[in-house]
């Protein structure tokens, strides 16, 4: 007998949950059948019981805690070995995990074991009328289109992109917690070392972030973006993954799913295409200005103010206008 | 060390001919009218295999692509960069294929060929799913590490030491037993540019061609039923006028919002 139709999987890193894990609960609310809102968490890791309590109290969903000895370093290979027999026993319709490297390592193996589909980097989910089948949504082509994906009645393992399922705290009765111990399986992957996160502190403190994407064309044009940032108080310079990978900016200035998540009062995206990898890290900004030569760029779907222009022409004019206005009010 | 580098032929996102809405009324989509090129993440995967080959004696790299006739361009480029052999699994079919279909074909090809390491890009630039590598690993029952940006193969035959950026920017160092599958993230190992002389030689090299139907693939498991315009997360207000007028309007708007 399946203990739940929807199983959400969380893991513990240094005693803490991933801050995005609550979005899985919001995803489950959207995916749950009206008649059957049966959702269960499974949380894995060293000293997982206290975070299991948090999940049960905050979401009201039952929790299964798989507590592991400190020696069990978190890897996707280990999660896969532990989860496969449990999920095989439960046979859920939907398994939700965050789209992180560790869950990407194990999602395919879990899907194959459950004879399920695997849909990656999911950004939306709804039930189709009248079939009641689940439809999963994600963007493609650098964010310029959305694809709707169906599994034809097959169960689905999904990895959920952080930043797309806003979670709201609600009053709820804490749910039951079940503890499990499992024998520690041998793993073909070993975690050797974990280095501290390296994020430029200025990005977290800035009120204005000016970000450069591939559309700036060459590293020489970075000076223009830097001059634009200097027009604003408490500002910082950031870049997309491609700009940081190219060495135009330091890696710790990267904004996006694999870099920093930021929420400044003003975000100016210069030559950024708007792929979900970047947008996932900046959608919390209060006001978003996008400047791009390509009027079809996906970034305009995430912007409040859009300027279609050539950056090399437009940025010097904008800097001049900002500096002039500043002088006028001094 | 015997390696298989999997390479995708993707649409050139800068080509104005790339359609960004359904190309027929049923919500289907194809990009035959647009130019294509080698997926950038796969260039990094191939570069990683070339750097491993340089430190491991008796190494060999097969470059493989699954796609239509014109996808063979990426194999020519891979040979020009230094791959030893090109394998083209010829698959026609429009729209966006399931990652299970593509991974099933790759696994069927790789199954009896004893690769020590299969490499893929961390994702494709067009779909950004990052699924083919892990599914190949699952089908062949091999361990899998996604999004690595450094591979050290000098430690010995049994395994590889890999580095990657995990969630929240933490850097992980992991060891993986061979045979294995890894997917390679951009950044760590900038891909080499093929020399013209090597490209000319690559164009003469015979490719191994296999029809997709001749391989025992697997079921698709999921399908894209429609593509469409993405939801607008915010209501964008486009500024108009000359570049100078737009600059002044934007400066005035930011001032009105108290941002300067």
Topology:
The complex is a heterodimer of chains A (330) and B (260).
Chain A: E1 6-13, E2 16-17, H1 22-31, E3 39-46, H2 49-59, E4 62-68, H3 76-90, E5 94-98, H4 101-113, E6 117-122, E7 124-127, E8 134-140, E9 145-150, E10 156-160, E11 177-180, E12 189-195, H5 201-205, E13 208-212, H6 222-230, E14 235-239, H7 241-245, E15 266-270, H8 276-279, E16 287-292, E17 305-308, H9 311-329
Parallel strand pairs in A: 1-3, 1-5, 3-4, 4-11, 5-10, 6-10, 13-14, 13-15, 15-16, 16-17
Antiparallel strand pairs in A: 1-2, 7-8, 8-9
Chain B: E1 2-6, E2 9-11, E3 36-38, H1 40-55, E4 60-67, H2 72-81, E5 85-90, H3 99-110, E6 117-121, H4 132-139, E7 144-152, E8 159-165, E9 171-177, E10 180-184, H5 196-204, E11 208-211, E12 223-228, E13 237-238, H6 243-256
Parallel strand pairs in B: 1-4, 1-6, 4-5, 5-11, 6-10, 7-10
Antiparallel strand pairs in B: 2-3, 7-8, 8-9
What does this structure look like?
The complex is a heterodimer of chains A (330) and B (260). Chain A has nine helices and 17 strands. Chain A has 330 residues and is of the alpha/beta class. In chain A, the strands form three sheets. In chain A, strands 1, 2, 3, 4, 5, 6, 10 and 11 form an eight-stranded mixed beta sheet that branches. A five-stranded parallel beta sheet of chain A has the order 14-13-15-16-17. A three-stranded antiparallel beta sheet of chain A has the order 7-8-9. Chain A starts with 5 loop residues before the first strand and ends with a helix. Chain B has a single domain (2-214), classed as HUPs (Rossmann fold, 3-Layer(aba) Sandwich). Chain B has helices at 40-55, 72-81, 99-110, 132-139, 196-204, 243-256; strands at residues 2-6, 9-11, 36-38, 60-67, 85-90, 117-121, 144-152, 159-165, 171-177, 180-184, 208-211, 223-228, 237-238. Chain B has a nine-stranded mixed beta sheet, sandwiched between helices. In chain B, strand 4 (60-67), helix 2 and strand 5 form a beta-alpha-beta unit. In chain B, helix 3 (99-110) packs across helix 4. The longest helix of chain B has 16 residues, at 40-55. Chain B starts with a strand and ends with a helix.
